[in-house]
Structures are given as structure tokens and as C-alpha cells.
Amino acid sequence: MKILPSLNGEHHWEFKRMGGIFQAQLNTIDDLKALEELDPKLWVALSCPVNDLEIDPRTLSLIDHDADGRVRIEEMLTAVRWTLARLSNTDTLFKGGDLPLDAINTTDPEGEKLLASAKQILANMGSADATHISVNLAANTEKIYGQSRLNGDGVIAKDATTDPEVQQLIQDIMDCLGADTDRSGELGITQEKLDIFFNELKSYEAWWTLGEIDSAKGEDIFPLGDATPQGFKHFIAVEKKVDDFFARCHLTAFDSRAEAPLNRDVSIYKEIAAEDFSVSREDIAKLPLAKVSAECIVPILVGINPEWKERMRILCEKVIRPLGIGPGDALDFDEWQQVKARFEAYRVWRQSKPETGVEKLKINRVRELLNSDLESKLAALLTEDMALAPQMKAVASVEQLARYHRDLILILNNFVNFSQFYDESQTAIFQAGRLYLDGRECRLCLRVNDPAKHAVLAGLSRAFIAYCECRRKDSPTKFYIAAVFSAGDSANLIVGRNGIFRDRKGLLWDTTIVRLIENPISIREAFLMPYARIGRFIGDKLEKWAVSRDKAMQKQMETGVENVASEPAKSKQSDNNNSSMGGVAGMLAAGGIALGAVGAGLASLFNTMKALTWWELPLVILGVILMISLPSMIIAWLKLRKRTLAPLLDASGWAVNGRTLISAKLGKVLTTRATLPISAQCLFDERSGVRSTYWTALGLVIVISAIGWAFILFA
User: Fold this and answer.
1) Is 156 inside a domain boundary?
2) What's the CA angle centered on 83, arms 81 and 85, to 5 degrees?
């Protein structure tokens, strides 16, 4: 530990070296008060994300004043400053838990309102005699605000009044302009929405009145009366299609040769003949409205494109017949022009319509609202609600103080320092849970959104990282974790292996490794790695040699069969004998050369060993082992010394301010291997080959040692 000296009355800071850096310790209230004086370079973290941490995100979102999804030093200091000002007994902060009512500072009006609001919340919850208030009670806004008709948030819901006319007005505003949500979770409207609504009502009514005035002057603005808007919708729904039909007919009347191609080639029907016609089809809708001819008459009820038949029927019933144009079962070009002419004045008038959200209301309802006193009634209700804002703001402050009292020290010990991470008995807020895989338990598991993106920066941590996909049958979503393996070896850690992840809530998730960042895990693994590589190399070479020999023998057999079918028996027998003898002789010769080379090598080795004294032999063997394993161990040691947490957190959205190393001792805590209980009884069935690898290795060592000693003794 290191304590900085006091200079000019400065605060005495206590530092503890953890992870290769000195980290400021927060042990007293004086430490919290002096945080503003602490050099930002001495904070372990400069910022952290609000989400994907094992702490209530609501608390972090309250600290995040600018609501950008990140908590920074300035926001953390603001939270500490506000909390200390609101508490008279600040020592309870280090105990955490529920907020004691007698710890609230009531020396100023804000504190008095806060205490009164806390007591009111407890009374509403049926706990008027309680001396502490929990976060769950303080945050139950639906029940707290739901008890009150007005809650001071400036949003009025329908149930805030018993007047049915005002309730209907609120519903009309929500239907036209959308709804806001008040603190109780109900939908309602604000003063802003009320003002916009009535301004749009006035604008819409003035526009409608102008049309009525023009119609009274003789302009046929409303050819269908009150049904004109609906009739116009039916008209414009088919206008372009009908215009297209008559244009085709006019071209056919000009040149009869255009009739066939304008009706589309019959091949199109062959292409779609096998498809489903029971549903609406866009390709059929693109065909002409009816059969194109020089007569320029569009049928309405018979002989019309089936995709347009219903729309034309409605046009006939809602527009053509009410206008008294033609018989209604067909429409020629002149009659269609009359229909368009009847709607021309309405079209021009409609184009001057102001853009409003109240158009869905009928004009009678618009004028009814404008001629009533409902606007003033609703405005008075909103004014009454806003008058409660200061009192209700104190209710929100109760939740904030309760959350800070419970979580603030916990957050600071994962921000100012990482004491929770480096304390073996605790778990940091960024540790998502524990992964069980390959006989090991990994405690350093971080939630990640995108393994590929996370791995780019996380690789700089020098740690062995396994990215795992986590899923449950009862969960519609899956997530990913980055698990750090810091003990054991990586022999069985491969993509596709399955395990179990237990989150901080105790839920179990099926996991599968989807990506690996490979780095040394331990010195022990580095010692054995060269031998494992030699074994894999020899095994690969033997496998390739066996495969090549198998292919060669297969090819010889196929060649022999072909020779049997093409050559005389005698010649065949002679050639086969010669070939066989040649092949056998070649193999024997090659084998002899190989054995000779091996024998010469062994003889040279044994001659060298014979020249050694009895005490030199173990030193030579040890030297050979070190020559093989020492480089790998040194490289692993250098990487393990640099293994750090910072890049892992930086890749997850943190801004870590130091190296935060993961030592070998800490690595053994973060990743533990399976161990048998002390009182366990172990039964070894030798026939099943229990620990056969170790017995084989021991046997080879004994044999080699015996041969060496034999050469020395009998030389």
C-alpha cells in the first residue's frame, strides 16, 4: 500500500497496488468528498457503458445525465456530490441496502420534500411505520402514481377526469396526433398536444368553410354532398387505370394494327397458367382494364379485369349512379370526362387543404369541438397537474437516492478502482457469470454483442479467449460471452465444443464455442507444447505415408487386374513374378538402408553416452529437455506477464485508464480446474486404462534409463 503525504491540507489518499498499478481506495466518506481532487489519470476507468453490466441499468441511466448510454467521470462526480448533499448520515453509504429515513438530510426545503415524499410512498404501499425504504418500493411508479388522479408529469390520461366529454376529447387527440405516456404507464396527452390539436381544428374548419362558400357561389365543390370526400377517394383509386384504357382505345381507333399488341400477347397467360389465382396478383392487375377496342367503352360489371372489378363496381355505386351519368353498367369516353369534370373543382379545393392530423374527424365533430368549452376544461386539468410537479419530482428523487444508497459504492469500486475484480471473494460488475467447460470453471466472462468485432481489440489482452454462444429453449434471444481461460491447457479447447454458462441470476445456458483467440494459458502448457508439436508432426507424417502407401498398393492391384485381361497367362506370370520380386527386393533394400541409418545414429548416440560419467548423464538429459522446452516457456512467460484486462473491457465499450494485469496467481482463481474432494474414495479399474498415458510415459522413461545405464555399465 502507498499513502500520499498531505500537502497544504490535501486529502490523505490510500493506494493499493493491484494489477500492476496503484489504485485509489475508497474507505471513508472523506475519500468520497475528495474524489473531485483526485487526478483523472489515477482513476482506473474513464467511462463505462450503461448496459450489459451485472448491475441495475436504471441506476447507471440515472447517473448518465446526457443519456448517451455511457457514464463518465464528470457524471460520476455529480452523482457522488448530489448523494452526499442529500444524506445527513453518509456513513450508511458503505453499508448499502435500503435507505434509512433518518439518514435523509432535512436541513433544506428539497430534503424536507424528499423525506415527506418517501413517507408518502411508504404510506401508499401500506408500510407507513417503516423506517427504511427499498429501491423496489421507491421505483414502483405504476403503483405510486396510479393512486393519484394527477401525478405532476404534464400528461393527462382519460382516467384523470370523470367527464365523458373530456374523456372523448382526450381520445380524439390521441387518435389524431398520437399519445404520450404518463408516469403511471397510462396513455394521455400534453398541453402541447392540446394546443396543436385545436389550432389544426381551426385551420381545417376554415378550409372547409371556404369550400362551402365557393359551392354556394355556384361552383360545384361538393358534387356528392357530404359523401364527396369518400367518393373522390373511389374516383382517384381508378382514375389512372381508366385513363390508360381510353388512351389504348384511341390508339386502336387510329390504327387497328395496335389492337393485338395493346391487349398483350397470349403468351403471358401461358406463363402464369399453372400459378394460384385465388389471391390478388400484381401481374394480372397490370393488364389492361378491359379488352381494348376502337369502341372506347369500358364495361363495369362484365368483361373487366378481375383485379379491378370490385373497385369499378364501387365507383359505379358510389360515384357514377349518384352523379346521374349514364346507365351505370358501362362507361364511354365522354361520360368519363363528365365524371372528371364534376370532381375538378373539388380536386382544386382539396389541393389547398392544410396538412393536419384532424382530417379523420368529420367536419361536424370539428365544429362541435370548436364551439364547446372542452378546450378550457382540459387546459385547467393540465394546469392542475403541472402544479403537482415539484411534489412529484421529490418522489422521483426518492427513487434516485434509494438507488444511489444501494449501488453507488459498488459502482465506484468498479470505476475509480477495480477492487472488486482483484478481490478473490467478490465479483466485478462486468463479470457476467461462470462458464463450465473442459473440466474447468471460468469466472472472467464478459457479455459481448459481436464476437468478430470484439476480438479485434481483445486479442491485445494476451489472454486465451473463447467466444461462446449462449442459448436457452425458453428464451427467444441468444447472446455471446467472451470467456478467459487462465489455467490448464488448450488441448481440448476447439470451436464447436459445448459447455454450460451460469449467469449471475443462477440461470443455466447451453453454450458452444464459436471463436477462439489463442495465447499461452500456463507455463506447464508451454513446457509440454514442443513435445506435443513433435508428436503431431510425426503422427501427421505417418498418416500421410500410410495413405500414400495405401493408394500405391491400390493402384498396383488395379494395374495387375488390367494386365491379367490383356496379356497371355505365361507372360503375365513371368512379369508378375519379376514385378513382385523387384518390389519386394526394393522394399527390403529401402528397409535395410533405413535400419542402417537408424542403427548408425543409435550407435553414435550410445558411444557418446558411454563416454559420460554416471552423474553427467542426468545433466545431459536435463539440458536436452531445457533446450527443447525453454524457448517455448520463456515466450509463454513473457506473454503471461503482459496478460491484461484492459483490452477486453475496451472492446466492450469501457475506457480503461491502466494496464490492469492478470497475474498468474489471479489467473488460477479466475479459472479453476476440477479437483477431487479430500474425503473421496477413488477406485482404479486398470483394465479400463485409467491414467494410461501417465503409465506409458513412466514406462518409456524407465526403459530409456535402463538402456542408458546398461551401455554405461557394460561398455
Assistant:
1) no
2) 70
* AA letter at 535: G
Cell numbers placing 89: 448520515
Report the C-alpha gap between 470 and 479 in whole angstroms.
5
Residues 6+ apart with CB under 8 A from 2: 14, 15, 16, 17, 22
Say which amino acid occupies 301.
L
CB 518 within 8 A of CB 621: no
Collapsing DSSP to helix, strand or coil, 598 comes out as helix
Greatest Cα pair distance, the chain, in angstroms, is 135
Buried b (16+ CB within 10 A) or exposed e, 519-537: bbbbeebbbbbbeeeeeee
* Closest to 388 in 3D by CA, of 683, 575, 634, 183: 183
- Burial class of 152 by CB neighbour count within 10 A (0 to 12, 13 to 18, 19+): buried
Domain span at residue 111?
Answer: 28-121+394-421
Instruction: Identify which of 101, 145, 184, 107 has the alpha carbon closest to the alpha carbon of residue 402.
Output: 101
Same domain, 291 and 415: no
Distance from C-alpha of 427 to C-alpha of 433, rounded to nearest angstrom: 9
* Residue 227 and residue 307 in one domain: yes
On whether residue 113 sits in a domain, the answer given is yes
Classified as helix, coil or strand, 472 is coil
CA-CA distance, 648 to 51, in Å (whole number)? 16
- 43 with 108, same domain: the answer is yes
Q: What's the number of CA atoms in the CB half-sphere (13 Å) around residue 64?
A: 15
Do 230 and 307 belong together in one domain?
A: yes
Q: Half-sphere exposure (CA, 13 Å, Cβ side) for 381?
A: 25
State which of 356, 374, 403 marks the end of a domain: 356
Instruction: Examine the domain organization and report whether 352 and 232 are in the same domain.
Output: yes
Asked if 593 and 601 touch (Cβ cutoff 8 Å), the reply is no
Report residue 561's pLDDT band, with 50, 70 and 90 as the boundaries.
Answer: low
Residues in the chain: 715
Grid cell for residue 358: 384532424
> Looking at residue 159, what DSSP letter applies?
G
Query: Is residue 1 assigned to a domain?
Result: no
3-state secondary structure 48-106: EECCCCCCCHHHHHHHCCCCCCEEEHHHHHHHHHHHHHHECCHHHHHCCCCEEHHHECC
Q: 403 and 346 in one domain?
A: no
Highest mean pLDDT among 205-214, 444-453, 490-499, 515-524: 444-453
Q: What is the mean pLDDT of residues 83-91?
A: 92
Residues 96 and 224 in one domain: no
pTM, two decimals, is 0.60
The predicted-structure confidence for 395-426, as pLDDT tens digits, reads as follows 788 999 999 999 999 999 999 999 999 998 89
311 pLDDT exceeds 50? yes
Sign of CA dihedral 228, 230, 234, 237: positive
Domain finish residue from 307, 336, 356: 356
- Residue 70 domain flag: yes
d(CA 138, CA 125): 10
Whether residues 304 and 414 share a domain: the answer is: no
Count of C-beta atoms within a 10 Å radius of residue 121? 24
DSSP state of 461: G
First to last CA, the chain: 63
Residue pointed to by grid coordinates 384532424? 358
Residue 406 pLDDT? 95
Q: How many domains does the chain have?
A: 2
**Residue 690: band (very low, low, confident or very high) from pLDDT cuts 50, 70, 90:** very low
DSSP label of 318: I
